[in-house]
Structure formats: structure tokens, C-alpha cells
Amino acid sequence: MRFSANWPRVWRPALDGGLPTGADKGRWLAEFVTATWESLGRPCSELAVEHALGCAARRVALHDDERARLVHGDVQEWNALEAAEGFALVDPDGLLAEPEYDLGIIMREDPVELLRDGPHEHAHWVAARTGLDVTAIWEWGVVERLSTAAHLWSNCNRSAAR
User: Fold this and answer.
1) Which terminal residue of the chain, N or C, has fewer Cβ atoms less than 10 Å from its own Cβ?
2) Distance of alpha carbon 13 from its chain centroid, rounded?
3) What is the DSSP letter of 80?
4) Between the CA atoms of 104, 58, 125 and 111, what dihedral angle is there, to the nearest 10 degrees?
5) Element (H or E) spanning 87, and its range?
6) Is the CB of residue 12 less than 8 Å from the CB of residue 69?
7) Rounded distance, CA 133 to CA 136, Å?
8) Beta strands 95-97 and 80-83: pairing type?
9) How many degrees, rounded to 5, is the angle at CA 23 between CA 95 and CA 146?
10) Which residues contact 77 (CB under 8 A, 6 or more apart)?
11) Is the pLDDT of residue 5 over 60?
């Protein structure tokens, strides 16, 4: 996804309108990863799951209602349409979370791009272009990537889950 100066206008302060928070999403992801990993017979290493759960726990603990913004919740190539002034995001999940959550979704996507220069380098590249926290981007990306792999694995799309 092309990065530009438009990113800050994507995330806006919002009143609590009943949307889930970043803490809610982190807890849900941790529960989903744990339950799915167990039900699938532990298809990946325990170390990978522990790392993802640790990332989720830190994001939950660091959730800050004052810093939370209305985020899209599913920023990926199928939900970004090219527009006259950059791009338009469609099909939002909607969360009140730190903006880094959306960038973690981007870290979850395209494994070729992610691994080209190394996943940590990609997280630094994204953070440098948005002015946001690299650790938060990385941690959301880790837990989202593992939860997506678990979802794909459970739906018999094992080649995509790898």
C-alpha cells in the first residue's frame, strides 16, 4: 500500500459509540489464537504462539482511551481503492484503538514484501513514514499475522496460512 501524508487524516478522535477498543481487540485476538491453535492440534510452534500472545498482552495493557482514534480495523489491499487524492478505505471493521493497529494489519499482509528486507526493517519503514511507534506496529502485526494464519488453517487454506 502506498504511504503518503494522507495517513493522519485517516485516524480521527471519536467518542465511545459502542465500538470495540484496541484492548478489546487484543483480548479477542489472544483468545482466538489460543483456542484455534489448540483445536487445530497446535500447527505451529508454541514459541510463535507465546510471542504473539505476549504482543497482544502488551497492546492490551498499553491501550489508552485518550490516545485512541477511530481506526479502520482492516486496512489491506482489498479494502483500499485508488482515489484522486491517494486512496479511499472501504469495508471498515471500526475500532477505537491506537493508529498503529491499522499499520499492524499492513504488516500482516503481503509476505513477499514483508520478508524482502526483513520484517523488522519493514516495520521501521512503515513507522518512519507515519511518525508512529514501531514497536506497536510490529506487535499488532505479529498477533494479526498469527491469527490470520490460524483462521486460514482452520478453513483448509493451508498453503496461504504458511
Assistant:
1) C
2) 19
3) E
4) -50
5) strand 86-89
6) yes
7) 5
8) unpaired
9) 85
10) 1, 109, 110
11) no
Domains located in the chain, CATH noted: 19-161 (3.90.1200.10)
Residue with cell 479502520: 72
Q: What is the mean pLDDT of residues 141-161?
A: 78
State yes or no: pLDDT of 154 exceeds 90: no
> From its phi and psi, is residue 156 left (phi > 0), alpha (psi between -120 and 50) or beta?
left
Q: What would the pLDDT profile of 106-137 be if each residue is shown by its tens digit? A: 888 766 777 777 778 888 988 998 899 999 99
Q: Which residues pair with 69 in a beta bridge?
A: 97
Cα–Cα distance, 75 to 94 (Å, whole number): 10
Cell of 58: 502488551
pLDDT at 46: 96
| 129, amino acid identity | R
